[in-house]
Amino acid sequence: MSITIKEVAFVCHTVSDIPRARKFYEGVLGLKHLMNAEFAPGVWWIEYDIAGTALAVTNAQPPTPGGASLSLEVKGLDETREAIKAAGIEATFEVMDFPTCKIFGITTPDGYSVMFHEHKA
Question: What DSSP assignment string belongs to 33-97?
């Protein structure tokens, strides 16, 4: 028997505080939620669509900082860096310039690595 993987179903970030997470993912990153469901009192599952891949945020389990990293392709990396800085979020590493791309990273309020990436023309 072999395994056939069709696609990424979702990437999941478990969080400790849903309102704080929504402020970050929606307010800072500007993501639009596809769905949000409260499965039990105060237990949430929220999905955001990023170019056809779902990023799920839930407080159904405790956060696992460092357990997952997310890299987001952006248009205008330098402008993205300035917007992140204006939101009061420090970079875990500043913009690195490579022959084919540029990238910088931050950490979410629950300790996950998020990198912003831009391919060069």
Answer: EEEEEEEETTEEEEEEEETTEEEEEE-SS---TTS-EEEEE-S-HHHHHHHHHHTTPPEEEEEEE
